[in-house]
Amino acid sequence: MHKDSYGQLIFAEKDLCNLLMQGESLENFASMLVDDSIEPERVSQFLNNSVDLVQYEEPNKSIEEFDQSLQQNWHMPQEYKDLDIAEYVLSLCDTQAELQRCGHELLLYQEKNLFGLLCYLKYLVDVMRDNDIIWGVGRGSSVASYVLYKLGVHSIDSMYYDLEPEEFLR
Predict the structure, then answer these.
(1) Are 112 and 155 contained in the same domain?
(2) pTM over 0.90
(3) Burial annotation 134-146 (CB, 10 A radius, 16+ → b, else e)
(4) Which end of the chain has fewer CB atoms < 10 Å from its terminal CB, N or C?
(5) Do 13 and 48 belong together in one domain?
(6) Are residues 42 and 114 in the same domain?
(7) Count: domains in the chain
(8) Do residues 141 and 168 touch, judged by C-beta distance below 8 A?
(9) Residues with Cβ within 8 Å of residue 50, at least 6 apart in sequence
(10) Are 85 and 111 in contact (CB under 8 A)?
(11) How many other CB atoms are there within 10 angstroms of residue 85's CB atom?
């Protein structure tokens, strides 16, 4: 297996055989990019169609464009992708001051096209809670975001400590 100039893993037939012989589960892969040593239709049947094998083609875009397209493709259940994150965050607010602060921050997140990130963070926090995974109370400038506090990403009430959201969303 090797990486292309975009950082994507490309698998050869011997790579798949090695993974299977070592007892590795391929169920963690929704899809795999494969080189031309593999006939995807033949190998997919061998794998009981559990993994979508995609013939690798060099992307015809700049690394910056490629990176931007990946940032829009968050791997999470559809219910989180469809979530109106602004409405959800605002529904968590108890006071007018909280509504104003979250509204201000949500505009900043929207300007930076980060609503997908907020949906993913909601998903991540839900998975950690469901599986009793412990995470830290918060670090760095992220604690300045009251929206992240309301989502449960950290435990620092930035309104209480009068932290400005621009410290995080520069």
Answers:
(1) yes
(2) no
(3) eeeebeeebbbbb
(4) C
(5) yes
(6) no
(7) 2
(8) yes
(9) 26, 27
(10) no
(11) 22
